[in-house]
Design goal:
Blueprint: H1 3-36, H2 56-63, H3 67-98, H4 104-110, H5 119-133, H6 139-162, H7 168-175, H8 180-191, H9 193-208, H10 212-217, H11 226-236, H12 241-274
Helix pairs in contact: 1-12, 2-12, 3-6, 3-9, 3-11, 6-9, 6-12, 7-8, 9-12, 11-12
């Protein structure tokens, strides 16, 4: 076969595969969005276009349910979990890289041990512990529980990033009279911004999308988070599919915005933390 034709066929097949995977990945999101703004009459019609537009589902879920309260609860928990994760994992990963103690590599690998188990299996002992100390059914219980899963991954990511960091910059700061803790937060963190933002994305997404721990730890209706709250709305208010799709779309908006604005830092953080200098 002619090399030019072979190259053309290879590129054509690759292009078809890319388009197919893209459509396969984005079509559920597209269907969710248009189902949230469809009229009730056209909701179950087999149309790829939205058809008749209607904001009734959005207005109903915002005015007739506790969805705004659930939204604020999730936002508070996700933001505080993210802040706590970044504040703790940065000096921890720094200490693992800078220390010369034996067994540091084993400690880094052991931090990912919890990810070998299903979340539901870990939720039972966490729930028993929080009940015994009286912290169940609180936002604090969710923040601490989410942090137990975001911190090990955050340490592992930042550890891979700090391995390639030029610590001569830090030593220059010491000469100028900067303390070690101040050097971490005022010099090292700004220079390792892609890695920090990678941890921010992972922590926020994990906390924002959690359903299992909210279901187990939260019983008060005013403390529920979005995934758990949306499921309870379906049970309590007999919401239709349009309202559920409108709620699901609003849940996805912060995640889409985060990835839209921070994707380049996210990719750079993963690549810089994975490449060995």
């Amino acid at each position: 076969m002619n090399p030019a034709i072979r190259t053309w066929l290879r590129r054509g097949i690759l292009g078809i595969l890319i388009v197919g995977v893209t459509i396969y990945s984005l079509f559920p999101i597209y269907w969710m969005v248009i189902s949230g703004v469809r009229s009730e009459r056209s909701l179950f019609e087999p149309l790829l276009t939205p058809g008749l537009y209607s904001w009734k589902s959005v207005e109903t879920i915002l005015s007739m349910t506790d969805f705004p309260t659930y939204y604020m609860n999730s936002l508070i928990i996700a933001v505080l979990t993210t802040v706590l994760t970044v504040v703790v994992v940065t000096p921890m990963a720094y200490a693992l890289v800078r220390s010369r103690l034996p067994g540091m590599m084993l400690m880094v690998r052991a931090m990912l041990f919890a990810y070998m188990f299903p979340a539901l299996l870990m939720a039972i002992p966490i729930y028993i512990f929080l009940v015994k100390i009286g912290w169940d059914d609180t936002h604090l219980s969710l923040i601490l529980t989410h942090s137990t899963f975001t911190m090990p991954l955050g340490v592992w990511l930042m550890w891979g990033f700090f391995k390639n960091f030029p610590f001569e910059v830090e030593e220059s700061a010491f000469i100028d009279g900067c303390s070690r803790l101040r050097a971490i937060y005022r010099i090292i963190m700004p220079l390792t911004l892609p890695g920090v933002l990678t941890v921010v994305l992972f922590a926020f997404v994990l906390s924002w999308a959690d359903y299992v721990f909210s279901l187990i730890l939260i019983t008060s209706d005013e403390l529920k988070t979005l995934p758990y709250g949306l499921a309870s709305i379906d049970d309590a208010y007999d919401a239709n599919w349009g309202e559920l799709m409108a709620g699901s779309t609003m849940i996805c908006v912060p995640l889409l915005l985060l990835f839209a604005f921070l994707s380049k830092y996210f990719i750079r953080g993963l690549s810089m933390g994975a490449v060995k200098s």
